[in-house]
Amino acid sequence: MRRPLIAGNWKMNTDASTCLALARGVVAGSMGVEDRDVLVAPPFPLLPLVKRELEGSRVFLAGQNMHWEEKGAFTGEVSAQMLLSVGCTHVVLGHSERRNLFGESDEVINLKVERALIKGLVPILCVGERLEERDSGKTLEVIEAQLNGCTSCLGKGRDGIPEFIVAYEPVWAIGTGRNATPEQAQEVHAFIREYIKERFSDPVAEGLRILYGGSVTPANIDGLMAQPDVDGVLVGGASLAIDSFTRIINFQAQGQRV
Ligand code: PGA
């Protein structure tokens, strides 16, 4: 059984004082939750502060991005080693805001995935179609192309690969209040799992956690988590308010997941 993962992506929000209150709230809100993982991805400069606040809890820490080189003259960039050294276990890669606002290509994201795996950070690889691609029936084609491009570092047909996580985030659902329906999410998640099964093996596919992201709220979390291939969520806006994120962490397992 895959362990659900509830991840909060704080994006370029919070500052030194608000992030502490939020981190404290996440620790309190996930207290006693044993059957699922919780993770937060604060902005880079706040990672050490948040880490201190998470000490003694089971909440994981992630970077929102990183550079693919080990170190060097890359002004403004952050390396995998830096993330590890402040307590990160995971890193979000290929978020649609990185792709669309900062021009990240599948090739660059693939280099980042490779470096993260070499260094022992678990990549949370984001994929997702734009509205016009969904409307023209190209969703699965786009997802497959992104998976091909961003995971070519993994090679093909291997029985075992290091842990990585995929987040399906339809671009049209991010920050828009228009979430994918549980059925739309399930369709793409099942497709991703099948892709991984064909490319690697049954056990790799069965063990892969696939998160949904895009306007997740307390109102839609239970329906999403009831889908057999939805193994968690990557939450933006609703992770910034402690009440709503606490409710999302404490989603009610229903249907086939129970
Ligand atoms: P949202 O963002 O929950 O605000 O739609 C999700 C994300 O970008 O990961």
Give the helix/strand layout.
Layout: E1 5-9, H1 16-29, E2 37-41, H2 47-54, E3 59-63, H3 80-85, E4 90-93, H4 96-102, H5 106-119, E5 122-127, H6 131-135, H7 139-150, E6 165-168, H8 182-199, H9 202-207, E7 209-213, H10 221-225, E8 232-235, H11 242-249
Parallel strand pairs: 1-2, 1-8, 2-3, 3-4, 4-5, 5-6, 6-7, 7-8
Helix pairs in contact: 1-2, 1-11, 5-7, 7-8
Describe this protein's structure.
- With about 260 residues, the protein is α/β, with parallel strands linked by helices.
- About 40% of the residues lie in helices and about 15% in strands.
- It contains 11 helices and 8 strands.
- An 8-stranded parallel beta barrel has the order 1-2-3-4-5-6-7-8, surrounded by 6 helices.
- Helix 5 packs across helix 7 and helix 7 crosses helix 8.
- The longest helix is centred in the C-terminal third of the chain and has 18 residues.
- It starts with a strand and ends in a 9-residue tail after the last helix.
- It binds 2-phosphoglycolic acid.
- 2-phosphoglycolic acid binds next to strand 8.
Radius of gyration, in Å, reads 17 Å
Structural class: alpha/beta
Largest sheet: 8 strands, parallel, barrel
- Please report the total strand number as a whole number: 8
Quickly describe the structure:
40% of the residues lie in helices and 15% in strands. It has helices spanning 16-29, 47-54, 80-85, 96-102, 106-119, 131-135, 139-150, 182-199, 202-207, 221-225, 242-249; strands spanning 5-9, 37-41, 59-63, 90-93, 122-127, 165-168, 209-213, 232-235.
